[in-house]
Amino acid sequence: MTGFKVIAQTVRAHWSLLVLTSAGLVVVYYGAQIAVLYFRLGHLPNYITAYDYPANVARIIRSTPAVSDMIPIILNEWIFEIGYMDYDYGHGIAEWTMGIPPSKLLMIAIASVLISVNALLWRTARHSCFHLERRSLVGMTGLGAVTVGLVSISLSWVVCCGTPTWIVGLALLGLDVGLAFALEPFGVWIVSVGFIILAMSTLRFASHNLTVQSAVRRTGLLPEIA
């Protein structure tokens, strides 16, 4: 049995818990963005808009001749929009918005699944690896999650009009604006590194689970390793 088979076995055995945990992490992620906006700007959202995504996709396909342009537009077309509208100015100005495009929702969903799988694998891996390595793997999972999460931020702020949404998020989190803009060209590389770290930690956890299963087959007992 390989590490990939251990992962597949874990997913099959705990699929309902995995789905619930992953969905919960997605909700927590977007809830955390709203919390940051509230503490930084002092306003909770006062409107939610759901878009007709299939109709918008059909319109994009009809009006965009180049597939190379079509796919990025479709992936970044919003499904939902949550925001705060300031009605002190005429019909209102959206002071901040959190748009949810499928591309970033998919990235957060994948990261949430990997985190949930790691948590399930950790329950067994804690019997088969040393304390320092367990902490390192948990740290790798956290680092990968934070990296993917930062680049997947989908905020717009009237003060930063026209700025990429994850750069707005970094600015709202308190990062120096100049540094945030310096990071912008490396977004794809940063999120790729985050997923690689998450995947590596998952495979390492699976490797330790394989060790546990081998020990159980040999002795019928879990190994006692501090």
TrEMBL record:
<feature type="transmembrane region" description="Helical">
    <location>
        <begin position="179"/>
        <end position="200"/>
    </location>
</feature>
<keyword id="KW-0812">Transmembrane</keyword>
<feature type="transmembrane region" description="Helical">
    <location>
        <begin position="137"/>
        <end position="159"/>
    </location>
</feature>
<keyword id="KW-0472">Membrane</keyword>
<feature type="transmembrane region" description="Helical">
    <location>
        <begin position="105"/>
        <end position="125"/>
    </location>
</feature>
<feature type="transmembrane region" description="Helical">
    <location>
        <begin position="15"/>
        <end position="39"/>
    </location>
</feature>
<protein>
    <submittedName>
        <fullName>Uncharacterized protein</fullName>
    </submittedName>
</protein>
<keyword id="KW-1133">Transmembrane helix</keyword>
